Amino acid sequence: MKKLAFISFISCIVLVQACSNPQPRTARSVGATSEILVVTQSQKQWDNAPGEAIRGFFGRDQYGLTQAEPHFRIANILVPNLSEMFKKHRNMLLVEIDPKLEEAVVETRSDIWAKPQRIIKITAPNAESWVNTFDQHKEGFAILFNRSERERLMNIFRPTADYKIISEIEKTMDFKLLVPEGFFVAKNTGNFMWIRKEVADYSQGILLYVRPYNDTADLSASRIIKVRDSLLQKYVPGPVDNSFMSTDKEFILPKSRPIAEYITDYAVETRGVWNVVGDFMAGPFVSYTLVDERYGRLITVEGYVYAPNKPKRDYLRQLEAILYTLELPDKDPA
Question: Considering the entire predicted model, what is its pTM?
Fold first, then answer.
């Protein structure tokens, strides 16, 4: 299987590579978590069609959160205000209208003024063409901006890697996952691991589990949730007797979709809300399920958040960054 979605996006846009000359002291990028800085030539562009298209896509609510939060925060400045400070922003989307052009051009660059940094620019002959071009490629833009966010987070997490936990994961599961300090192993059954972080005002959890792979039906949304619920009931108890973690199927239904931008050519991402049967606890989760052909097994890595009365998107994004560090050994099993 090929990475069709991302390759299709790449093939449709003009990729302009950053200058190959080495930059001796690249500044560290700035900007709030999950934030995109949109640079327009005029306030009219931001108030009308281009700005509406950007806000409608990147500002839409992220699915699977227990309270409304957008995929990205969107900030806007005009070109004359693009100072050296703003040039260091991590995620930038540039809007340019040039009537001399016959058709729209898309450029994407990385690490121009800071690192990590992703800059995307659409230049079009008019606003209608700009919006049409944005709509054609917006899913690919989201992939690039999400990658930039994960890279920033892992630059923070890598220096604090907990090698004791990393070693236990590798020994138990025969794959690697970079877990930063602050977590602890709450359960390890040999094919299921529960790794937790508990602080005063929020909790984060990582669930890792493997099972035999039979056929493609094992990657269906219903099968993924059925397996998930059976393992959670068995291994993840709630705070009171006979309570346990489960998947909410009443208020926010879990959604699964195939993705091509994970560590393998094909994986299934599932987002939804977990709850506790027998208690009043809930929060968002995201999981990635893929086939490990070396052993003929399925691997699922999952992150969940519990943060009552607090925004949860950024806590979940931190876990996504960790889950994207999954690495399968190159060697075949003996």
Answer: 0.89
